[in-house]
Amino acid sequence: MTKTITMSEETYEAIKDQLTAEEAKEINNLKDLIGETYLFQCARYIYHGKVKTVTSDYIELESASVVFSTGTYDATEAEDMQKLPNNAFVLRQSIEAFYQMNW
């Protein structure tokens, strides 16, 4: 469904950098994350990687890293991120939040 918003030129100029042409992906369950890269903030560590598998117990991340310091959330790269030698398996029960980052 397409919606139209009418605004002044001044308002448009103020917010145009925040608008994107890409569509938002609707997420109804964790399996909708497969194929996308996310940061998972967990009870102890922060993990970053591409979601490969989702089961009832864990989420498997490929090209996975542990993030020791994100830096500012609008940064283009993590302040301190260490690559893991293999895929990571994140327990679903330990996930507190997840985000798509700019890195």
Question: How would the global form be characterised?
Answer: globular
Strand percent estimate: 35-45%
Question: Would you count the extended β strands for me?
Answer: 6
- CATH topology group: SH3 type barrels
C-alpha end-to-end distance: 30 Å
Q: Name the helix and strand elements from N-terminus to C-terminus, one letter apiece.
A: HEEEEEE
CATH class: Mainly Beta
Coarse structural class = mainly beta
- Measured on Cα atoms, how large is the radius of gyration? 17 Å
Largest sheet: 6 strands, antiparallel
Determine the fraction of residues in helical runs and give it as a percent range. Answer: under 10%
How would you characterize the overall build of this protein?
- This protein is mainly beta and about 100 residues long.
- About 5% of the residues lie in helices and about 40% in strands.
- It has one helix and six strands, in the order H-E-E-E-E-E-E.
- A hairpin with a 3-residue loop joins strand 1 (about 35-40) and strand 2.
- The protein is globular.
- The chain starts with 8 loop residues before the first helix and ends with a strand.
List keywords for this structure.
103 residues, mainly beta, SH3 type barrels, six-stranded antiparallel β-sheet, 1 helix, 6 strands
